[in-house]
């Protein structure tokens, strides 16, 4: 399966991605991790990306898209992958569609973990990271919303979006994710029933 996982910082995305990749036997492609690795290895992409990442800006689309396009051609992606942190904008989303269409393996689902702002703020405040101060948290949530809202709409229109209630225990949330994916599978690709 080819799945995109979205959600604001503090929604519990990391935990759920880990469980899902284990359960589906597909690799977890975190764009942030891929870029940090490229920087460590000082590859061409890494050297290009480094200054953008240091400023907290998105790296140029062509750098990111090329990394992902190459990554999904590796053998471990033969039966799919879970994208985390990518795509971040419309151009990246369209480039991913093209890369997957070229392989004949279109996206199966886009999951969004939905967690009320109050809960996200409380969870992030509890982590104690330097970028977890209340005003910074608010800024990160705002930029997630600004960047992501148009993407959610893009996927909703194509019947790919599943909004997952991200409140409750990690076990409960994971159950909801599996249930949503199972319902889509039963309904078949592109089915109206799957659109919820
Ligand atoms: P993250 O770990 O997802 O927060 O990403 C860390 C940094 O990597 C971001 O601040 C961006 O500079 C860069 N980055 C990650 N994913 C992308 C993406 N899809 N497009 C552009 N830049 C990205």
Heteromolecules bound: adenosine monophosphate
Strand percent estimate = 5-15%
Strands in their spatial order, largest beta sheet: 2-3-1-4-5
Number of strands: 5
Shape: globular
Mean pLDDT across all residues, rounded?
Answer: 90
Could you tell me how far the N terminus lies from the C terminus, measured between alpha carbons in angstroms? 19 Å
Structural class: alpha/beta
Radius of gyration: 17 Å
Query: How many helices does DSSP assign?
Result: 8
Order of helices and strands: EHEHHHEHEHHEH
In helices, the fraction of residues equals 55-70%
Largest sheet: 5 strands, parallel
Structural write-up:
The protein is built from eight helices and five strands. It is α/β, with parallel strands linked by helices and 196 residues long. The protein has a five-stranded parallel beta sheet with strand order 2-3-1-4-5, sandwiched between helices. Helix 1 crosses helix 8 (170-187). The two termini are 19 Å apart. The model has no long low-confidence stretch (mean pLDDT 90). Adenosine monophosphate is lined by residues 31-32, 35, 52-53, 56-59, 64, 85-88, 92. Adenosine monophosphate (AMP) binds next to helix 2 and helix 3.
């Amino acid at each position: 399966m080819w799945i995109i996982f979205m959600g604001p910082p503090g929604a519990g995305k990391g935990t759920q991605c880990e469980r899902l990749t284990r359960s589906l036997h597909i690799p977890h492609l975190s764009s942030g991790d891929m870029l940090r690795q490229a920087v460590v290895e000082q590859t061409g992409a890494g050297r290009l990306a480094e200054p953008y990442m240091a400023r907290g800006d998105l790296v140029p689309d062509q750098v990111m898209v090329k990394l992902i396009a190459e990554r999904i051609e590796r053998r471990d992606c033969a039966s799919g992958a879970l994208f985390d942190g990518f795509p971040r904008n419309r151009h990246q989303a369209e480039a991913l569609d093209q890369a997957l269409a070229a392989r004949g393996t279109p996206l199966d689902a886009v999951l969004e973990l939905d967690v009320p702002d109050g809960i996200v703020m409380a969870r992030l405040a509890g982590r104690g990271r330097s970028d977890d101060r209340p005003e910074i948290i608010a800024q990160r949530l705002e930029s997630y919303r600004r960047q992501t809202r148009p993407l959610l709409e893009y996927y909703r229109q194509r019947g790919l979006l599943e909004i997952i209630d991200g409140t409750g225990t990690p076990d409960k949330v994971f159950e909801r994710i599996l249930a949503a994916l199972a319902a889509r599978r039963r309904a078949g690709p592109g089915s109206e029933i799957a659109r919820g």
